[in-house]
Each structure stands twice: as structure tokens, then as C-alpha cells.
Amino acid sequence: MDKNIKDLKILIDSNSLNKRIKELADEINSKYSTNEHLTIICVLRGAVMFFAELVKHLKMPIKMEFVSLSSYGDSFKSSGKVKSFNLSLPPLKDENVLIVEDIVDTGLTLDFLMKFIKINCKAKDVKLAVLFDKKCARKFDIEPDFAAYEIDDKFIVGFGLDYCGLYRNLDYIGYFE
Ligand code: 5GP
Q: Which of 82, 143, 161, 177 has most ligand 1 atoms within 8 Å of CB, for mutation?
């Protein structure tokens, strides 16, 4: 379906997003010790802007890792299958791990990733932070430890989230009516 940026309505503006992400970072800071390092895994590509904003406000020493996964393709709906482009991670044995994802929808992608990390990497602790929790669309048993916003079942773009690869660079969250 063809979409035009002129038809995009603003759902959350840039200032509100940044303010809310700072609050979420404070919540995360309060749950971890500042003496122990945290390994943060950014799920590319959608989480890139959220990740970059969030880590600026975290107080503990952090290591950054990146994985690429996709379940949407060029569509408004999950394909029901996870395509893994890159899941190479260093040994995470006994590490505290925080996965940072743009949005949890059906939960398929994060169910796949969390199982992969728990089985293959033997981390001490794995938690999940998302910018958006679309609880109403959930099909898998995934509950984020930290979520900036809960949203209803609408397709959003901007701040890392795309439609057909576009709109990721917007500094706000929009939706098509
Ligand atoms: P899930 O595997 O939980 O069904 O879907 C997770 C992935 O689907 C997200 O990482 C994101 O790439 C994509 N997704 C889910 N909902 C939306 C949405 O409203 N907008 C966009 N742009 N992508 C979404």
C-alpha cells in the first residue's frame, strides 16, 4: 500500500518522547547497581533511536551489542516468522543483560531472542526494555520489564520504526489514518 508522509499524524512529539525515555532510564538505573556492568543488546534496526537516547542516561558501566531480527517485512502485520540476519554475540556467561527493542507486538521476535540468549549464552539475568508495548496484540508469553508506553493496535512509524524501510529517522512517532 502506498503511504505518504503528508498523511502521517503525530502521536507522540519529540520532546515528550525524550522526556519519557529519560524517566525510563531513571527507572532502569534504580534497578541495577552502579558497580556492576550491564550488557545492553540493541535489536536492529527498529530499536536504534530508542537505544541511542536511552543509553545516554544510564549510570552503570555498559557494553553495547547489536543483533538484527525481523518479523514484519514490508507489511503492517507480523509475517509470523522470525528472520534472523545476525545473532552473533560474545560469551554472556554470568552477565546481566538488558535487551532493548522498539516494540513488542505479538511477542514472536522477543520470544525467539530471549530463548536464544537464555539457552545459548547462559547469562546471569536477562531483562527487556521496550519503547512500546502493544499488549492487545500479544500471542506469546512476553512481558517487558521496562516499557515507555503502552499502545493500542495501531501501526506506528518514526523514531526507528519503519514502513517499507522508510520513516525511521523521524524524531517523533506518527501513524497513518
Ligand atoms: P512481534 O514479533 O512482537 O510481533 O513484532 C515485533 C516487531 O514487529 C518489531 O520489532 C517491529 O519491527 C515490528 N512492529 C510491530 N508493531 C509495529 C508497528 O506498529 N510499527 C512498526 N513500524 N513496526 C512494528
A: 161
pLDDT attached to residue 122: 85
H/E run at residue 125:
strand 125-133
Which pLDDT tens digit goes with each residue over 98-150? Answer: 999 999 999 999 999 998 898 888 899 999 999 999 999 999 999 999 999 99
The answer to whether the CB of 31 falls within 8 A of the CB of 24 is no
Contact 103, 131 (CB under 8 A): yes
How far apart (Å, rounded) are the C-alpha atoms in residues 28 and 146? 7
Question: From CA 174, how far away is CA 160, in angstroms rounded?
Answer: 11
Query: Which residue in the list 105, 153, 162, 171 is annotated as catalytic?
Result: 105
Give percent helix, percent strand, percent coil of the chain, each to the nearest 5.
Answer: 25, 35, 40
Atom 16, ligand 1: residue with shortest CA distance: 105
Q: Beta strand pairing status for 125-133 and 146-150? A: parallel
